[in-house]
Amino acid sequence: MQASRKRTIDGREIKAVVFDAYGTLYDVQSVEGAVEAAFPGRGSLITAIWRMKQLEYSWLVTLMERYEDFWSITLRSLEYTLRSLDLSAGGQLLEDVAASYLDLKPYDDVLECLGRLAPRQRVILSNGSPAMLSTLAAKSGLDTALDHILSVDEKRAFKPAPAAYMRVEEELGVSRGQVAFISSNGFDICGAKSFGFTVIRVARTIADNPRVPLTGTGLDERFFFSLMRGKAETLDNAADITVHSLAEIPDLLTSRKADG
Amino acid sequence: MQASRKRTIDGREIKAVVFDAYGTLYDVQSVEGAVEAAFPGRGSLITAIWRMKQLEYSWLVTLMERYEDFWSITLRSLEYTLRSLDLSAGGQLLEDVAASYLDLKPYDDVLECLGRLAPRQRVILSNGSPAMLSTLAAKSGLDTALDHILSVDEKRAFKPAPAAYMRVEEELGVSRGQVAFISSNGFDICGAKSFGFTVIRVARTIADNPRVPLTGTGLDERFFFSLMRGKAETLDNAADITVHSLAEIPDLLTSRKADG
C-alpha cells in the first residue's frame, strides 16, 4: 500500500457527507455465498467477473447513450459471466442470484462512522436503482442512519459521468464545495474529484493475502480482481486524502484543520 | 463457442468496410514479448491487466469529459498495471514498453482480406491517436492496403461513444447504412451497431487452451482475460453476423445476398 499525499480537509465547509454504496458501505464480495450455493465451485470466480462486467456495462451503456437501470445491468453482467463460463441459468435463477445484490453486508466500520457524523447530512449517492437501494438500506438497517439515499437513475447516466454527481447538488441544496464524498472505487474517486467534491478514498482490502505468482504458477481470482480494482487510479483527480477505515472520517471532519 | 444468429448482408449497399484496429487487425497480445523482456516472469500478466485498464481508462476519461489521447491512456494504464504489481518504471522505461503498441503484429488473415475487398474503401477507425496509427500502419505494412486511417481523436471521445463512429460519415462521405464495420471487441460491436453500422464480429481466439479451473486450483491470466474480453456482450445491439476469420468477409460482401 503506497502512501498517498495527504492534504488537509477543512471540516467547517462540509455540509453533506456523501458515500458511495457498492464497495464502500457495502461489501460486494458478500454475494459470494449465494453465488457459490447456486454454482458450486464457481462462487469466487463468478463474483469477481460479475462485478467487473457490471461496472463495464454501466460505463458502456452510458457512453452509448443506451441507459438501462442498474438492476438490468446487474442481470446482464451476471448473464455474461455465466455464459463466459459455459454455465447457463434461466430467468428465475438469474434473478435469484442477482437478488444477492439486494442483501449485501455492510462493512464493520459503517455504523460507527454514520453515527458520529450527525448532525451533518449523511447521504448515499449510488449507481443502484431506487428500488435496489431502498431494499438494500432497509435489509441492512442503514436506512435509519442515513438522511438521504440518492440514485443516479434519474439522470440516466452512471458514475463517473458528471451528471450522476449533480444529483447531490440538486437534491440537497448544497454546492459541490460543501460536499465530502467517500468511495473505495477508483473510477468514482476520479469522477467525484473531477466534478468538484472534496474526496476521501477508503482503501478497502479486497483480497485476503493475495499472492503475486510468477507466470504459469496459477492466479487467484481475488488477486486478479484486486489488481484491476484495488488500487488508486493513475488518472488525474486523485483523492484529497486516503483513510483505511470509515471510522477515521468523523475526526477528519470535526477538527477545524485536520492534517491527515 | 456458441452459434450466433446469422442474418444476411446485402453487399450491394456497402461502400466502405471499416475495421477496428486493436484486437481486430492487430494482435494486442503481441506486446507480450516486449513486456516480458522488460519485466521477466510478468509478461503475460502485465499484458492482460494493461489491456483491460487501457480500455477502462478510455471509457472513464470519456465519461468524465476529461479526454486524453490514446497514447496518454496507454502510458497511464501501463503505469497503473506496474504499480498494482509493486513494480516501478521510470518515464523512459514506461515509454519504451508502451512503444510495443506501435509495433503490433497483424493477424494472419488481414492481408488477404484487405486485398480482396478492393475497390471498396478499406478503412481503419481506431481509438489510437493519429501518430500511433500512422506508425503502426507503416511498420506493419498495412498502410498500402488501406484507403483511410481514421482516429477518434478529433472527436475527443473514445468508442463506444456515438461521436467516435461519426468520424466515418464525416470523413468518407458515406451514410452509416453504407458501412460494414468489423471488430472483435464486444463493446465496439455494440457501439457500432447502436450507431447504425452493419456489424460483423470476428471471434478471435484470445486464449490458447484456456483452462476452466475450480476455485483454488489457480487461474491462468490469459483465461481470465478471455473471460472478460473474449465473448460477445450480453447487451443489446449484437453483431449482424459472426465470422471466425477475416478471410470470410470478402465473400460475404461480394455475394448479392450472402447467408452466413
Tags for this model:
homodimer, 260 residues, alpha/beta, Rossmann fold, six-stranded parallel sheet, two-stranded antiparallel ribbon, disordered C terminus
Folded structure, characterized:
2 copies of one chain form a homodimer. With 260 residues, chain A is of the alpha/beta class. Chain A has a domain of 181 residues: HAD superfamily/HAD-like (Rossmann fold), CATH 3.40.50. Helices cover 41% and strands 13% of the residues of chain A. In chain A, helix 1 crosses helix 2 and helix 2 packs across helix 3. Chain A starts with 7 loop residues before the first strand and ends with a strand. The C terminus of chain A is likely disordered. At the A-B interface, helix 2, helix 3, helix 8 and helix 9 of A face helix 2, helix 3, helix 8 and helix 9 of B.
- Greatest contact pair? A-B, 55 and 55 residues
Silhouette of chain A:
globular
- Low-pLDDT residue intervals, each spanning 5 or more residues of chain A: 207-217, 256-260
The major pleated sheet of chain A works out as: 6 strands, parallel
Radius of gyration of chain A: 18 Å
Offer a quick outline of the entry:
Two copies of one chain form a homodimer. The first copy, chain A, is an alpha/beta fold.
SSE layout and pairing:
The structure is a homodimer of 260-residue chains.
Chain A: E1 8-9, E2 16-19, E3 26-27, H1 32-38, H2 43-63, H3 70-84, H4 91-98, E4 105-106, H5 110-117, E5 121-126, H6 130-140, E6 148-151, H7 162-172, E7 179-183, H8 186-195, E8 198-202, H9 221-229, E9 241-243, H10 249-254, E10 258-259
Parallel strand pairs in A: 2-5, 2-7, 5-6, 7-8, 8-9
Antiparallel strand pairs in A: 1-10, 3-4
